């Protein structure tokens, strides 16, 4: 079937659907909805059997939906209509929310319903629920849609059915989310911020700076006056509330143009005198505070979590991860697992911090070096067996960080972007060594030059990952533990695997070989950072300022069969 995805951006849900449909064997294209004339032209060129719009912020022209059956994926329960569906569900504390697939017609979200479903609402940010619960459900519903689409007797649900639980709502405004510092409990404040995270954020004024707030974490220990800045930590600030305290990791100044940055980068000197409330290098995942690096041991397996906002890793974060890894590999465990974060495994070096820097060339350069040092530690680790566990999506250097481990497992449903060229980079992280070693030279070239996302299942088929574990979180973690335990339970096999690895690492040419890869990669990367006119400098700016594309990106044009 020829299926065209019409999108406002090739976001996480669109990428997941793109991968899923290609894995099913469908012929899938992507068209950005930039303006009516361009979209009509692209639709006519692709000539699809159906159109699916997984993430669309504008209306599809009648010329299109009247000629080709078009479906909209709406992130709300059946009957729900209007913008900011998930925002309202979070703010209203709905215990259940859902996804609806409806047929496009002349009215916004008003078409007949072809598939719908619900999930229990977790406690999380809008972006998190969208990337996880919404996306998983939407994929299942698209499968349902493709089944009923071919059934001549199928009758869709009309929007006026009384039984539908949702209803039309207006768009949410900043006044709906405004924090009432005197009266709101910490829980209320966290809910408001989560309803607007990652976009548009909750507007407020912090130390005289008008800005939007992102990345809220509750704090169990620190206490102080209402809206008092009680502490800072790794770029985040801790604020007092009427009944407790919470952390904000990121701010974006209201004045335009501005980008999302760690809170301390925005508030700068205004934070003079505020104490840095340091944590140990890694802490227990259950500690109620803002924390990035966590560690948990079960049996003889160590689980190292690194929950960096948006999976972006600045130089300090890379250094801390490296030291945590170096320390833990010597702690007597048998298997050390790189767990990534709650929202992403990793998306590589930190593009926003680099863009904000007055010396973005030098700071970017030190970021890539510190990332490489972390990867090198993993590649040269001869004390334990290492596993990268891709529970969430990974992109660019984040994928290649994962490939440094001896074994790589992925949760089903995870989407990987093992390439750098969309940002104009050659890339480092020793990818020229690790990627061909896993998939061969031809596939490595194809993955890095096509710039397309791939599913965990596809990654397993080509040898990029070793195995795929259940998508269901409740099964994923026990399965991961079982996988890790199996690596050491047969002691003879464990020692044998470790021996093979030690022999390889201590072979004199190994360190030279990986060093050579690093040098060649960095030689290619140098102009990207130091030439002010480089493609990377231009594309990075477009990326962090979220510039609207003027056409469907070249690498997505003409994509068809897998
Ligand atoms: N540095 C800073 N921010 C990053 C980032 C990075 N390396 N990678 C992703 N982000 C941010 C995005 O700006 C976005 O921010 P916001 O939602 O808070 O405004 C957020 O992370 C989520 O990213 P988004 O693009 O919406 O997620 P996605 O799942 O749709 O797409 C990627 C994932 C990996 C394809 C995409 O984020 C990407 O191309 N990232 C850049 C990767 C890169 O080139 N890294 C540098 C080389 S190692």
Quick overview:
With 562 residues, the chain is α/β, with parallel strands linked by helices. The chain folds into 3 domains: 2-167, Rossmann fold; 178-271, Methionyl-tRNA Fmet Formyltransferase, Chain A, domain 2 (Roll), CATH 3.10.25.10; 293-544, 2-enoyl-CoA Hydratase, Chain A, domain 1 (Alpha-Beta Complex), CATH 3.90.226.10.
Structural class designation: alpha/beta
Could you say which overall geometry the principal axes of the C-alpha atoms support? Answer: globular
Mean pLDDT: 97
Q: For the terminal residues, how far apart are their CA atoms?
A: 13 Å
Do you know the CATH architecture of the largest domain? Alpha-Beta Complex
The tally of strands reads 21
Please provide a written account of the structure:
The chain is an alpha/beta fold and 562 residues long. The protein folds into three domains: 166 residues, 3-Layer(aba) Sandwich (Rossmann fold); 94 residues, Methionyl-tRNA Fmet Formyltransferase, Chain A, domain 2 (Roll), CATH 3.10.25; 252 residues, 2-enoyl-CoA Hydratase, Chain A, domain 1. Helix content is 38%, strand content 21%. The chain contains 19 helices and 21 strands. The protein has a six-stranded mixed beta sheet with strand order 2-1-3-4-5-6, with helices on both faces. Strands 7, 8, 9, 10, 11 and 12 form a six-stranded antiparallel beta sheet that branches. The chain has a six-stranded mixed beta sheet with strand order 13-14-15-16-18-21, with helices on both faces. The chain is globular, with a radius of gyration of 24 Å. The chain binds coenzyme A (COA). Coenzyme A (COA) binds next to helix 10.
């Amino acid at each position: 079937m020829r299926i065209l995805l019409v999108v406002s951006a090739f976001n996480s849900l669109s990428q997941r659907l793109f991968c899923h449909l290609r894995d099913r064997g469908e012929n899938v294209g992507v068209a950005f909805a930039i303006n009516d004339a361009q979209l009509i032209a692209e639709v006519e060129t692709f000539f699809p059997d159906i159109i699916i719009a997984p993430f669309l912020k504008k209306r599809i022209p009648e010329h299109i939906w009247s000629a080709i059956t078009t479906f909209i994926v709406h992130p709300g329960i059946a009957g729900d209509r209007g913008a900011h569906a998930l925002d309202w569900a979070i703010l209203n504390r709905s215990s259940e929310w859902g996804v609806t697939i409806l047929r496009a017609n002349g009215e916004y979200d008003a078409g007949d319903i072809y598939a719908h479903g619900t999930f229990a609402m977790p406690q999380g940010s809008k972006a998190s629920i969208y990337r996880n619960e919404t996306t998983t459900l939407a994929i299942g519903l698209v499968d349902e849609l493709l089944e009923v689409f071919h059934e001549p007797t199928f009758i869709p649900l009309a929007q006026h059915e009384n039984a539908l639980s949702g209803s039309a709502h207006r768009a949410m405004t900043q006044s709906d989310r405004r924090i009432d510092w005197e009266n709101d409990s910490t829980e209320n404040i966290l809910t408001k911020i989560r309803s607007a995270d990652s976009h548009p954020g909750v507007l407020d004024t912090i130390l005289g700076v008008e800005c939007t707030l992102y990345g809220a974490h509750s704090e169990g220990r620190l206490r102080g006056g209402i809206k008092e800045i009680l502490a800072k930590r790794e770029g985040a600030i801790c604020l007092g509330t009427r009944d407790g305290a919470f952390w904000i990791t990121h701010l974006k100044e209201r004045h335009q143009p501005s980008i999302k940055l760690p809170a301390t980068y925005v508030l700068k000197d205004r934070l003079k005198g505020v104490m840095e409330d340091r944590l140990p290098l890694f802490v227990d995942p259950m500690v109620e505070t803002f924390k990035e690096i966590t560690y948990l041991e079960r049996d003889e397996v160590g689980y190292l979590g690194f929950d960096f906002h948006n999976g972006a890793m600045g130089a300090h974060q890379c250094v801390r991860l490296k030291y945590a890894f170096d320390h833990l590999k010597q702690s007597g465990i048998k298997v050390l697992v790189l767990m990534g974060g709650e929202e992403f495994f990793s998306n590589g070096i930190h593009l926003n911090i680099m863009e904000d820097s007055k010396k973005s060339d030098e700071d970017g350069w030190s970021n890539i070096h510190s990332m490489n040092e972390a990867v090198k530690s993993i590649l040269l680790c001869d004390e334990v067996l290492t596993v990268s566990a891709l529970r969430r999506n990974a992109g660019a250097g984040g994928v290649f960080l994962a490939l440094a481990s001896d074994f790589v497992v992925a949760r089903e449903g995870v989407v990987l972007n093992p390439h750098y060229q969309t940002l104009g980079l050659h890339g480092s992280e020793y990818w020229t060594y690790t990627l061909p070693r896993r998939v061969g030279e031809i596939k490595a070239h194809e993955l890095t030059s096509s710039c397309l996302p791939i599913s965990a299942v596809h990654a397993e088929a080509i040898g990029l990952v070793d195995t795929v574990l259940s998508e269901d979180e409740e099964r994923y973690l026990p399965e991961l533990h079982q996988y890790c335990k199996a690596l050491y339970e047969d002691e003879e096999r464990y020692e044998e695997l470790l021996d093979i690895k030690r022999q390889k690492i201590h072979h004199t040419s190994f360190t030279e070989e990986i060093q050579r890869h690093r040098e060649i990669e960095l030689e290619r990367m140098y102009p990207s950072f130091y030439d002010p006119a480089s493609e990377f400098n231009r594309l990075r700016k477009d990326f962090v300022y979220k510039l609207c594309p003027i056409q469907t990106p070249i690498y997505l044009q003409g994509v068809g069969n897998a």
